[in-house]
Amino acid sequence: MHRSFHHTYIIGISFISALGGYLFGFDFAVISGALPFLRKTFELSAWWEGFLTGSLALGCMVGTLIAGTLADRYGRKPGLMLAALIFTLSSLGMAVSGSLGAFVAMRFAAGIGVGMASILSPLYIAEISPAHMRGRNVSINQLTIVIGILITNLVNYSLASKGAEAWRWMFGLGAVPSLVFLLGVIWLPESPRWLMGKGKLAQAEKTLRKIGDENFVTDTVKDIERSLQGTARASFRAVFEKAVRPAVVIGITLAVFQQLCGINIVFNYTSTIFASVGADLNSQLFETISIGIVNLVFTLVAMWQVDKLGRRPLMMIGSLGLSILYIILAFLLRSQADTHFVSIFVLLAIATYATSLAPVTWVLISEIFPNKIRGQASSIAIVSLWAAYFVLVFTFPVLAEKLGTYGPFYLYAGICFLGFLFVRSRVKETKGQTLEQLEQHLIKH
Q: 51 and 397 in contact (C-beta within 8 Å)?
């Protein structure tokens, strides 16, 4: 049966929703350029530097936990609007902070917005997109994250020469994309799947007509009605039943490994790493731009390859590759090598991560859980991911002070090697299989 679609409209609403990813990228990257200024303004100890950086992750854990409940009760659109509003207010709050406590509180609040958007933006896009466009549209979210990182690094670089208060502008300018996101979300329609779940069939059909023709509307309504039958919300206890435990253990381990592999140290502490080999502030901030460009290019490569090469080979290549690169990087940092050599291996590590662990972990988390527990298990895995991110960025300044900046990279190399062994022994290939086939396969094993 022939079906036609309003492609411009679909891409438009997907892109507006994916601006949540852009703000995720902003809050993630802005700290790297601002840390040299914040260290002086707030006279940060290693402990406080780690806690200030990691406070975003603590907020993300709260945002991740409340987003699902809010979105199920009030709709996807109000959830996205609340995330956008939190982003706007927290960006301005960080910019005008007069004390370390106020700044950390605002960064924690920004994390709540990031955590909510990290779940709601991909969820909304998946529910609004026709099946043949879903994969590409959801990947717009990953793309806006890395674009957010790159643009933020460029802005930080241009502001760095504006004096000791430059960091206030770095954070305050985040209110601009936040307001664009908020205004855009007001224009978005509610998810038809949520509307039908609440018995609002006429409104759901009205939204579906904006997306495609009558054949599409009829078929989609039937599909949603079928999928809503028997979908009572599973309890958290169901996630730990013996039959599904292997999948849950794999999902949580992969989520934690994606963070403890150490790459976000390179993103968040770029200035610290390059300062340790004598780079000046200008060079440190220029390195963040190089990292942003490489991250963007290799994310595009990953989006192109993940359905061709498969998940397992990419994860194995990525974890083993990072392990080797970290050992070389630790040696270069220890021997005070030329910044150009350090830069080459930092960029190789970023490229390796962007084509493997970065996108593939999220793909696997969305695939390996059985249907009845997917929502609950995914939220547990993502909370575990943010907890691991907090541990990583909180401990780095303390470890670097005790061991030297190079020291922690030997630890991350060991973690990556253990990750390689875990993927090789426990993770099965999921490429080209339906979610139902994967469910049967995982429960058998």
A: no
Quote the CA–CA distance of 342 and 330 in Å, as a whole number: 9
The DSSP bridge partners found for residue 439 are none
Q: 212 pairs with which residues across the strands?
A: 5
Handedness of CA 317, 319, 322, 328 (dihedral sign): negative
pLDDT value at 247 more than 90: no
DSSP letters along 132-167, please?
HHHHHHHHHHHHHHHHHHHHHHHHHHHHTTS-TTHH
Which of 215, 237, 227, 258 lies closest to 5 in space, CA to CA?
215
Q: Which domains does the chain have, with CATH numbers?
A: 1-188 (1.20.1250.20), 232-445 (1.20.1250.20)
Can you give the pLDDT at residue 437?
A: 57
CA angle 159, 274, 33 (to 5 degrees): 25
Q: How far apart are CA 89 and CA 92, in angstroms?
A: 5
- What residues contact residue 96 under an 8 Å CB cut-off, 6+ apart? 168, 172
Task: Grade residue 19 by pLDDT with cuts at 50, 70 and 90.
Answer: very high
**What are the structure tokens assigned to 208, written together?**
């579906």
CB count within 10 Å of CB 435 equals: 14
CA nearest neighbour of 118 among 18, 44, 188, 38: 18
Which segments within 277-344 are labelled E, that is strand?
none
Tell me if 26 sits within 8 A of 152, measured CB to CB. Answer: yes
Kindly report the number of other CB atoms within 10 A of residue 348's CB atom: 17
In terms of pLDDT, which residue wins out, 438 or 353? 353
Its pTM stands at: 0.84
First to last CA, the chain: 39
**Per this entry, what is the length of the chain?**
445
> Would you say 90 and 436 are in contact if contact means Cβ atoms under 8 Å apart?
no
Contact (Cβ atoms closer than 8 angstroms) between residue 54 and residue 394 = yes
HSE, side-chain direction, 13 A CA sphere, residue 199: 0
d(CA 428, CA 365): 13
Distance of alpha carbon 437 from the chain centroid:
27
